[in-house]
Design brief:
The chain is mainly α. It has 2 domains: 162 residues, no CATH class; 175 residues, no CATH class. The protein has 13 helices and no strands. The chain is globular, with a radius of gyration of 21 Å. It starts with 5 loop residues before the first helix and ends in a 9-residue tail after the last helix. Keywords: Membrane, Transmembrane, Transmembrane helix. InterPro entries: NnrS (IPR010266).
Length: 399
């Protein structure tokens, strides 16, 4: 006989139709990121192709705006939403909800509007405020709960905020550095954060979902793969020269062995799992492409888009579906809509990388096709998950 706790008997269930957009961090930020990603990328593609010349313009060079907004707009929203959700479980303390969470979402929106419409110091102040505020809240949770194992994640979030500030100082000519180089370092930091967190959760998800699955894991090997990847990315972003390509190749080999050790093949029939495995495999592929670029065999953008679309976009679409399903009281099962969205993101990555690396004559078409596939994927997410994220959990629990 199962015992029912007093808390379970007396807890008040939240009606399923209750508006709950600001009940937990993942809800507004996942929804905003999906909508923004679906709109910003095709708009950028049309601006790049001069289709919207004179209709849509930004004070920044188009490439800077595109890269900045995908990193500090789209990806940053997902990271904050994930950490505010996971942080509650990690620390046992309440993360922002209600009016505070709504204010943070409004601050993020203000940053996007400022970057699209304005210029000058005020844009830097508005846009650069979001990440430091979120980092301060998250680090405060860790410190109060003495959750030392995750201090480094709080540190990475803080550094990401500093890089955004560095970008603005560079574009305002306060720092004598190339703003695009700052954006490259920011992408590297996000990829490093992805491979650290994926190394924790992807094998665990696989073990819990597939009974009897065999895996090979080694903590020292994991640390070596992560450290080598971090060094390779920093050397690339710092333009250390062709010799740094050897480090990138070594990091790629370590990451391939690490990912396959999680038993990628066993996940082939489970979209909620294979999307994470395949997405993580874009990290070693991106490292190999960056190595080829350092040897002047390929354009740098091939590796950049492998990491930005394949790894980052793929892990994001996988995690924002899984997190939303689990934290709204639903079964952890990817249906046809989710599976199509996963495939679209990876097809976007494949299209963009192949047309850069192997079919340069089709590069222009590749931009538009990849942008369309990407936008469709995140529009599907927004359409499917908007009701889930704006209403209460199915089980009536808070969050």
């Amino acid at each position: 006989m199962a015992f029912i706790s007093i808390d379970e008997l007396t807890a008040k269930r939240i009606p399923p139709e209750t508006f709950s957009l600001f009940a937990l961090g993942f809800r507004p930020f996942f929804l905003l990121a999906a909508l923004f990603g679906a709109l910003a990328v095709p708009v950028w593609a049309l601006v790049w192709a001069l289709v919207l010349a004179g209709v849509v313009s930004t004070p920044l060079p188009g490439l800077w705006w595109h890269a900045h907004e995908m990193i500090f707009g789209f990806a940053a929203a997902v990271i904050v939403g994930f950490l505010f959700t996971a942080g509650k479980a990690w620390t046992g303390q309440q993360t922002p909800t209600g009016q505070l969470l709504a204010a943070l979402a409004a601050l993020w929106i203000a940053g996007r509007l400022a970057m699209a419409l304005g210029d000058g110091v005020w844009v830097a102040l508005v846009d650069a405020a979001f990440l430091p505020v979120c980092a301060a809240i998250f680090v405060g949770l860790l410190v109060r709960s003495r959750n030392k194992v995750n201090y480094f994640i709080g540190g990475l979030l803080s550094v990401l905020g500093l890089l955004n500030l560095g970008f603005h100082l560079a574009r305002l000519h306060v720092l004598a550095v190339d703003p695009l180089s700052v954006l490259h370092f920011a992408l590297c930091l996000i990829v490093l954060l992805e491979t650290i967190i994926a190394g924790r959760v992807v094998p665990m998800f696989t073990l819990s979902a597939i009974r009897g699955v065999r895996q090979w894991r080694n903590k020292a090997f994991d640390y070596a793969a992560i450290a080598c990847t971090g060094v390779a990315l920093v050397l690339w972003a710092g333009d250390a020269g062709p010799w740094a390509a050897a480090v990138a190749v070594l990091a790629a080999l370590l990451q391939i062995a690490r990912t396959l050790g999680w038993n990628t093949w066993a996940t082939r029939k489970n979209p909620l799992l294979w999307v994470l495995h395949v997405s993580h495999l874009w990290i070693p592929l991106g490292l190999l492409l960056l190595a080829a670029a350092q040897w002047q065999l390929l354009p740098r953008s091939a590796g950049i888009h492998a990491l930005a679309i394949g790894a980052t976009g793929g892990l994001i679409i996988g995690m924002i579906t899984r997190t939303a399903l689990g934290h709204t009281g639903r079964w952890l099962v990817a249906g046809p809509v989710e599976t199509i969205a996963y495939a679209l993101v990876h097809l976007a990555a494949l299209t963009r990388v192949l047309t850069i690396a192997a079919i340069p004559a089709a590069a222009s078409g590749g931009v538009h096709l990849a942008a369309t596939l990407w936008a469709l994927a995140f529009l599907l997410y927004f359409w499917r998950y908007r009701p889930f994220l704006t209403r209460a959990r199915l089980d009536g629990k808070p969050g």
